[in-house]
Amino acid sequence: MSKINKKWIFRQLKNDLIVKDSHRGVTLTYSWFANQVGHFSLGFIPTILLKEVIDNYTDFENPAIITAIFISLFWLVFELYNFLGPLLKVTNKTFKPKWRNIAFDTITDLLFFFLGSFSASLFIFNSNINLYIVLLISLLLVYPIYYWFITKMYQSYAFYPFQFRLSQWGFGLSTDNKKSVLDFINKENKGKHLMIFGSKSSGKTSLSIGILNELSIKHNTCLYITSMKLYSMFYFSDKNEQQIWSWKESEYMVIDDINPGDPIKKNIVNSKKFLNFIDTSKDKNILNREILKNKNIIWVMGNEYISDKEYYSSWVLMLNELGVNNEKIESINLSK
Hints:
CATH topology of the largest domain: Rossmann fold
Number of domains: 2
Oligomer: single chain
Structural class: alpha/beta
CATH superfamily of the largest domain: P-loop containing nucleotide triphosphate hydrolases
CATH architecture of the largest domain: 3-Layer(aba) Sandwich
Strand content: 5-15%
Helix content: 55-70%
Strand order of the largest sheet: 2-3-4-1-5
Distance between the termini: 38 Å
């Protein structure tokens, strides 16, 4: 499987630092860096300003250090509220927030706040203690910078239409359906197939993106694609220059908009036609079938299968035709 290597990291850094965002748009990695520069600035600038106030109205011997500590404590309290407040108020308990991941993100933000504050203190008053603190914080930031930069790349190259965490999903699920979701994320078996059925606005696309995004954050190669776009890709083996991994190389994939579902009653694509696209108009395309069989796929069906058992069965039979065993096929119905 294609993973992010040094070549792609340096290419991403070059694009983010040199290529104009007005020309190629803003990437997740660029946005992350811009966010951290903002955190650094919110530590640096207030420290400079507050130091002037302390100089004018107090008799402290070392106002630079005191100011840096005060600003750092302020952002510590702010981030603790920002971390705990909204999360503790979450009423949707279908999927719990990933507290460790969010805590790590909060710690990373705090380190940038602290770095800004003590860099300002070092700028104001060049002392060994200021220098040691700045060096220590910089050292502590090495791994978080690497982790979050790589993570944003895994999310970017999945090509999600929007960013969404599973804990944000606001619809209810039965215990069995919730287990199906968690099994898809946590178990490492190959060739898992999860079919999500539902009418318009039932949350099927956001649920599928939330599931895959959790896997992207764990540094799995994921890909979001609509069925219409996938049809043509069945005929090609090469990925374009904007991709690190193709549909064939990704470990996980969402195939969205296979059929619209209610209120549109007529199915645009049936299972036989989909299989024909997989086979690229041959009797059998063994390679495509084998890849899909062994890949972990979320099929967003867009159909109320409870009222159409034959439709559901036809897609299960298609997966069986690919060589997928029934024990590796699960379904979720979101129809209202």
